Amino acid sequence: MMRSKVKSGAFSALLIGTLVATGGFLSAGAASAAIAPESVVSSASSDVERWVVPQTQQGGNYWTSERMQSAIPGEVLVQDNVAAGAIGAVAAGATSLVSPQKADPEPSPTASRVSPISHIGKIFFTLGGTDYVCSGNSVSAANENTVVTAGHCVNEGPGNFATRLIFVPAYENGSAPFGQWNATVLYAPTQWSNSGDISYDTGFAIVSSPTGSSLSDSVGASGVTFNQSRGLTYTAYGYPAAAPFNGETLQSCYGTATPDPYGQTQSQGIPCDMTGGSSGGPWMIGSGSTGLQNSVNSFGYNNIANTMFGPYWGSVIENTYVAASA
Q1: Does the residue 197 lie in any domain?
Q2: What does the pLDDT look like over 50-74, one tens digit per residue?
Q3: Where is the signal peptide (predicted)?
Q4: 111 within a domain of the structure (yes/no)
Q5: Using only C-alpha atoms, what is the Rg of the chain?
């Protein structure tokens, strides 16, 4: 795990990201080869970009335990975006929420150290021939197969979409009690996929079942809510990989959100020392994992100790969720 600093004016941005196999940093703008135009499909909303993942670029049998171990935490991909700052204020509308979906009654996997949560897991993906790892969460949706993560874990921002993306719910110490779920369609706000605005660093993946049962039936799904008040109290989850963590167990933080002190993003920060690999992990309102999800782990600053920032979920991210969850 490596941590990257990005200079921008009076501050330095600290990426919660890592390069493992290559030993260096990778800028978001040069992460992957071009995707054929016919692979990009516009949605009904101008705020949303949708990419249907060709079968040849889905995870399939690619993700062996060795490749999972060597994958690079994806936060390194946002170094340019954090330095660039926000393009404009995040649009907000009426508060909305979607109730959680409960899993069918099945035995929960047993953890050895920190209990895994069935609907939270690790995300593995490839950009530019390099393998990365993030965190993600199953969320309530009409299609019952929707995962939310950070925008930089599905798209370069701006740039190409990820390939070989899989979701591994309840991952712990290399085990995958619910199997690997291949992403078939990826969604990102156009403010992220076209402009790389870190204030909109959220993405969604539609996954296919390895068993025939839907994701929400298999592991459950968190409810989501948008356009909430700022300054709420959250419990954040993720799989950090840098010391003192190793990326093999689920970790959590708890605290009250405060604004970005530099004012360059619409994101909020909570007290949290999670490191690379935690990107895309869910922020749940209140204490515990049963609350409504309202953000994701996104980035940090190197001169603001132990603070994780996450994007405000306003109307644009709501529109992206609506498109993905249909």
Answers
A1: yes
A2: 878 887 778 777 778 778 777 866 6
A3: 1-33
A4: no
A5: 17
